[in-house]
Structure formats: structure tokens, C-alpha cells
Amino acid sequence: MVSRIGKEIEISPVELGSQIAKKVRINLASGTPDPKKMPIKEIKEAYGEVIDELGPKVLFYPGAGGQEELIKEIENKVIPLLGVNKRKSEKIVVTSGAQHAIELLGKYFLENDTIAVENPTFIETFNALKLRSSTTIPIPLESTGIKVEELENLLKIVKITLLYVIPNCHNPAGVNMSECKRKKLVELAEKYDFYIIEDDPYKPIAGEVPQPIKNFDENGRVIYVSSFSKILAPGLRLGFIIAREDIAEKISLMEQLDFSTSTINQYVVAKLIKKGIIHNRAEELYNYYRNKMKILIDSLNDKGLTSFNEPKCGFFLLLDLHKDSWEVFHKAVEKGLSFVPAKPFFLRGGETMARLSISVASEEEIIEGVRILHESMK
Amino acid sequence: MVSRIGKEIEISPVELGSQIAKKVRINLASGTPDPKKMPIKEIKEAYGEVIDELGPKVLFYPGAGGQEELIKEIENKVIPLLGVNKRKSEKIVVTSGAQHAIELLGKYFLENDTIAVENPTFIETFNALKLRSSTTIPIPLESTGIKVEELENLLKIVKITLLYVIPNCHNPAGVNMSECKRKKLVELAEKYDFYIIEDDPYKPIAGEVPQPIKNFDENGRVIYVSSFSKILAPGLRLGFIIAREDIAEKISLMEQLDFSTSTINQYVVAKLIKKGIIHNRAEELYNYYRNKMKILIDSLNDKGLTSFNEPKCGFFLLLDLHKDSWEVFHKAVEKGLSFVPAKPFFLRGGETMARLSISVASEEEIIEGVRILHESMK
């Protein structure tokens, strides 16, 4: 009497990690952007302003697809910042964050299909796809992103509907996909007839990275997913999709099923974009997180913990502990440190991997966290 | 390469009606609560206050299931106002409005199942259930609600998973379900092993109505769905479910798939409840809409348009025009009036029915709207 999703859904290891992280001193687990850097003054002002200027209109039902005012600001200001070449044949659909976007895309594309994902991949977005797929095939990830030759070998024998990738500041692996791989993925999508979900929530704070996969795509094979969670704040729940018009129209209609995107929050984000808040913050946030990441990298190297690909951006570093990561985790928690044992991000392997995050920890906490980690590994 | 939902989703007639309604003088189409009555001053204050008092915390990821602060306020203040007897074995799950709640419930319960609904029913919530069902069976509605004897005849021959009903201020039919039918539905659910979704978004402004179906339920057969859209404002996108613990836990986990419920909006609603805004508004809003409904009823009677069940609460009256309602609609739009031709709300019949709404129209507009409607019928 219950659907497959109802039967198979279970608590996300990221949620579990976060719950434990609240109870310890040093949090290298959380993927929440640093609260110290959230523009709360500007957000507060924006709520007041949109209500004063536009009145009750900002509190109506949202309609499906997103408020025109916000779509205009995304089109004119955010898309250039992201470096996406949006074609005339493509449309923007506003969503309640990137997670909601992926849920909508899973709901649209999948019904017991075969899909491919990076191994490891971000478990929470992946779940929305996995629970609607019959087979999910892991493709190994290396320092330059997904191993395209392994993907191509697979495609020669298996038909897939979707490929899901995180090209920048990968969660949990911290790597960026090289430009030539981005181009190659689009060629493969054409040749083997599948779609690509390009999940790119870190791009606004990623600094210089190769151009989006979408830019190599001329036939609407790539659906680009973005988010305001990192550049503004996740609690607003706002993101968007750029997709070929026919797909975008359907995704937009599917929003009638949940109508979950707050109207007033859409006006607030439109206002913040208009004021230039997003543009002003992009470089500052990149530098801020980059500096913390450097400290993490240096601290790990100091302790001889060197089994990782060096992240160029984002919040996450994936470290091979060369021991069962749950065992180390339990010892670390006792000593006051939380991180995320990364096995759940892997469809294959990953037992000794740990996801370390620099997003909320201070410089001192990162250094102390690595000390505890090192001690816990003995 | 597209799922069933992707294939079958289409534009809601309510959306279409609303789009046309924006272009004409008199709007008897919209189901949006009256903007003149939205507490925008209080909402603006609440945004400022939660940011000042709680800081960046109100802008974190929402987590699944809802913020504790809001759940506490719902438990202690809203549930008593709604007259729901929540059992200890039941839990509250916060959602992005009632529509999101129904989408989650559809996703949880249904996978090509057979369901029963009132005929007519609210098309937008119904869609989230229909698109996941193999068979949807319409049960006629009368002035005292669903015809339970017809439902029972059906249940003797067909196994259903779910029954979806709107017991108060029905959309589009305007009727309330009698208390004895509410009790009977729970008995039938026990006897024939199905669940009931009790969709009750109008209750906060419904005045005196029979107690919830849920109150007769001792075994968690009834899932109660509520919303803050009518009593506060729909643009906040907040509602909740009350369900048996095992179901509530699963629905809560399923929120990990979309994480679509804005964190700050949850704190804002918690603040507004704490301040008594909801309690202060309940009676005032009931009287306000009740008065407009009386004017609609009187105006229709004056013109000899008497084929309807008299609504006791809510926004909607379902009128039998005794002619094709789309024909009348097109004439009415030319003369400056919009309403919703109600055929799409019916699984069977309904060609001559019109949904008239008093939610946003003024008293004068209602009178003038009925005059135009009458003229358009000639």
C-alpha cells in the first residue's frame, strides 16, 4: 500500500552527520555556507522593501515556473555572472533550491530507467534520481572529473536515460571537471542519446573554472541547475533550471503539483540581484572559502595526510584515511570533531573515505580538527 | 524517455482561468485570499524580528520535517484552534503549503493504485494523486458532502488505496460534509482497509463546522492536511500534515528529496502564531468572506439563478448554468467578467457548471459580476 519511494526512502547520512555535528566542538561535517558570511542585513532590508514597494502581491500564490521579475534578473544579471551561454531556444524555471530542481527533473525524466552518476556523487540529490531508476551505474571520478573513457565503454553496451554530474567544486570529492571532458560529455550525449543534468550550485563562489558543460550543447541535451544557497543563503530555498524550451515548459507545469516556491522569497532574491549583492559577494566568498581550504590542505599535508585530490574551490575535500572511516569517525566524535564518513556517497567502494568540509569551521577549528583527526587515526 | 507524469502533466484550468481573470474587470475566478485582508504589516514586522532575534539561523537549510519552533506553535496553538484531536501516536510534518503536502502524500502512497475522490474535486491537488493512480473513481457530492452509500457500494467490489476529500468549504462545490458522514468514512476505511486524505485548508476561516474526520479515527487511517494560506498568506508557502507516526516519519524523510520549505518563512509563521495573529484573524475573516458569500447568494437568487447548494463558508459556489459553461464563459469575458468553467473539476459530467469565487471581488463587483453572468446566459 506504499509506493517504491515510500518504501525505500531513508535518512540521509548528511542529515545524520549534521545532527551529530551539532553536539561536538568542531564541525567539519556541515555543508551549510558560513553563517558569518550570510548577508542578513541586506536580506532583512529586502523583505521590508519588497513589501513596502509591491504590497500584497508579493504574498500571492507563486504560480508555476517562477515570478517574471526574478526570471528577468536571472536572465540579465546572474546568467552572465555564471558564464552560461543561454540560447534563445532555452528557458529559465525557478525552483525551491537545487534539490527541488533535481527532484523535478527526476520526476520528469525517470521511470525505472538506467542512469549513470559519478562515483562518488552527492547522495541527497542523487537519491531523487536513484529512487526512480532501475539501475544506477557508478563512473569513477578522478582529479579532472568523471572518467569519460569508462563512461564511453559503458555506453557502448548499456542505454542510459540520464547522466548526473557536478562539474565544479564537487561534493564530496572537491574536484573540477576539465574543459575537454565537458565537451566530450556533450558529444557522448549526442552519440548515445541521453540527457545530462549539470548540477552547479557552487559556481557563484567557484572563482575561475572551465565554462559550463551546457555551453558546448546545441541541442538541449544539458539541463543546467543553479542555486542561490551558497551566494546568498540556503534558507530562502531558491534556485533555477536552464533547459530547452519543451523541457522547461514541462518542468514548469510540474511545479503545479507542489507549488512550493515561496513568492515573497522570489521577490527578495530579485531585489538582492538588482542591488548587486550577488555580484559584490562572488569574489569575496571565493577568496574567503579558498583561504580556509588552503588551511585545511596545509594542515593535512603537515600531518602527512596526503591521499586526496586538491580542491580548487567549494567546501569539500575527500580524504582517504586508509582505515574504516566509521571507526575513525567514532573516535573523532569522542574527541570533539565531526566529519562525514563518505561511504554513502559511493555506489562502489569508499569505505575508507572521509568528507571534510571547511564551510562553517574557523581557521583555528580547521587546524584543531585536523589534529584530532590525525590522533583519531592512530 | 520521459516519465508518465512528464507525459501527462498539463496546464491546470485554474491557472488558465487566473491568467484570463487578470485581463478582465471583475474576477470571480481567483481562489487567492483577498489581498486587502493579508496581514502584510505584521508579516513585514515578523521578518525583521526573526532576523534580529535569531540571526543567520533562520537562513540555514531547513532540514526535513519542519523547524521545531514552528511545530511547537502548531501543536500548542493551531491544532486547538482547528479542533483536531491529535493523538500521542501522531506527528506533525511542516510542508510548503497544502499542495506540497498532497504531492508528498501522493508520492508516498501511490504507484498505479486505485483511488476514490469526490465528484467534483479540486483539480490541482487531485492531479498529484491522479498522475500516480491507475484508476480514479468519482463519488458524487451532495449538499451534505460525499454520497457515502455510493462509496460503500463501490468498496464492496473495488479495492481502493486512498480516498481524497475536502470536508469543509469544498472547492469547487462550497459544501460541508455532515458529521455522520465523517464518522461513517472512518468506519469504511477500517472495514475496507484504505486511507483518507482530509484536505482542510479552509478550516481556519470556516466558522462553525463539524469536527474533523480525523477525530473519529483511532488507527491512523486519516491524514489531516492544513494550510496557512487562507489565514495568513499563500505566498509564504506553509502548511502541515498530521499523521500517524510511521507515516509522518516517512513523509518527513521524503522532504529530503525536495527540501523546498523555506526556513525563514517557518520562523515567520511561528512568530505570527506566537503573537496571536492567527487567532485574532479567524473570526474576522470568516465574517468577512461570509458576508461576501451572502451577497453572491442573494444576487444569484435575485436573478433567478438558483441551481446551487448554498455554501456556509469558504470562497466558492458551484452554479449549474444549465448551458455549456464555456460558451457562457466566453461571452462573460467579453463583457468583463471571469469565472472558472467547472468541467475540469469533474471526473464525470459538469459541462454546465460554473465555479464562482468571492475571494478577491468586492461587494459591488460581486453584484455586477452576477448581472454580467445573467446577461451572458441569455
Kindly describe this structure.
Chains A, B: Its cofactor is pyridoxal 5'-phosphate. Chains A, B: Homodimer. Chains A, B: It holds the Pfam family Aminotran_1_2. The structure is a homodimer of 378-residue chains. Chain A is of the alpha/beta class. Chain A folds into two domains: 26-40 and 281-376, Aspartate Aminotransferase, domain 1 (Alpha-Beta Complex), CATH 3.90.1150; 61-278, Aspartate Aminotransferase, domain 2. Chain A is 42% helix and 16% strand. The first copy, chain A, has 13 helices and 13 strands. Chain A has helices at 4-8, 13-21, 40-54, 68-82, 97-109, 123-130, 148-155, 179-192, 245-254, 263-274, 277-302, 325-334, 363-376; strands at residues 26-27, 90-95, 113-119, 133-142, 145-146, 162-165, 195-199, 222-227, 239-244, 316-320, 337-338, 340-341, 353-357. In chain A, the strands form three sheets. Chain A has an eight-stranded mixed beta sheet with strand order 2-9-8-7-6-3-4-5, with helices on both faces. A three-stranded antiparallel beta sheet of chain A has the order 10-13-12. A two-stranded parallel sheet of chain A has the order 1-11. In chain A, α3 packs across α10 (263-274), α4 (68-82) crosses α10 (263-274) and α5 packs parallel to α6. The longest helix of chain A is centred in the C-terminal third of the chain and has 26 residues, at 277-302. Chains A and B meet through α1, α3, α5, α6 and α9 of A and α1, α3, α5, α6 and α9 of B.
